[in-house]
Write a structure and sequence with these properties.
By secondary structure, the chain is mainly β. It contains four helices and nine strands. The chain has two domains: 43 residues, no CATH class; 132 residues, no CATH class. The chain is elongated, with a radius of gyration of 20 Å. The two termini are 18 Å apart. InterPro entries: Hrt3/FBXO9_C.
Length: 229
């Protein structure tokens, strides 16, 4: 279990081409890793054996009653945001009112993406993870997915009229697990209409965009995206 080649392969699976070398310092925080195992343990990364979940709660005022003008109902709105990372660089994000026990199952099958799930890719830069997401194509959602080689799903579509979500999240830790927290640092919506891009940034308040916390999901271990070798 201490074999360095095993740990090097584990690091390649997590960081890919941006893995770097052991004798070079990390440009982000000037950290030196003494072995591939040391890098895998101490370097920031995202967890694959579950998904990151946040819960947003806010109050929404209702309309005045016709019978009693002094009575105005207040509605408590709750919804969850789910983000799931995969080792091949793909990522899924979904916003739903479903409790985590039901919500995690909706992003379990990566080969049959629901229309309300955003799909895309991510990259790691030090303790920051960047996401580029877009909505699933409506034509594919209604007519079926294009047949592809297993393990190569979810390419980003090139569309003249498309909406992309550009997100930056900072990786944090919990007392019991490393890399268990994602904190919002940037969120931009880019709309392309007739080859013209229009961007708008979201106001990242803690009330609207609370931190996401990692939760293990046992069913995510059952399927492999490619043949085992």
């Amino acid at each position: 279990a201490r074999d360095e080649e095993l740990w090097r392969l584990a690091c390649v699976k997590v960081w890919g081409l941006s893995i770097g070398t052991l004798d070079a310092q990390d440009a982000e925080n000037s950290t030196v890793y003494y072995s591939w195992r040391d890098m895998f343990i101490r370097r920031e990364r995202v967890n694959f054996s579950g998904c990151y979940i946040s819960k947003t709660t806010y109050l929404r005022m209702g309309e005045n009653s016709f019978q009693d003008q002094f009575y105005r109902p207040v509605q408590l709105v709750e919804y969850y945001r789910y983000i799931r990372f995969m080792p091949d660089g793909k990522v899924l994000m979904m916003t739903s009112a479903d409790e985590p026990s039901q919500g995690v199952s909706k992003i379990r099958n990566v080969h049959n993406i629901r229309p309300d799930v955003l799909r895309g890719r991510y990259r790691l830069f030090g303790d920051t993870v960047t996401l580029v997401l877009q909505k699933s194509s409506q034509s594919r959602a209604t007519t079926g997915h294009v047949r592809q080689r297993r393990g190569s799903v979810m390419p980003l579509d090139e569309d003249s009229n498309a909406t992309q979500f550009l997100i930056e999240l900072r990786i944090g830790h919990s007392p019991k697990r490393r890399c268990a927290q994602l904190v919002w640092s940037h969120y931009t919506l880019v709309q392309k209409r007739d080859k013209v891009d229009t961007s708008s940034e979201f106001d990242l308040t803690d009330a609207k965009y609370p931190s996401l916390w990692f939760s293990p999901v046992k069913s995510y271990h059952l399927d492999a995206d490619a043949p085992l070798v």
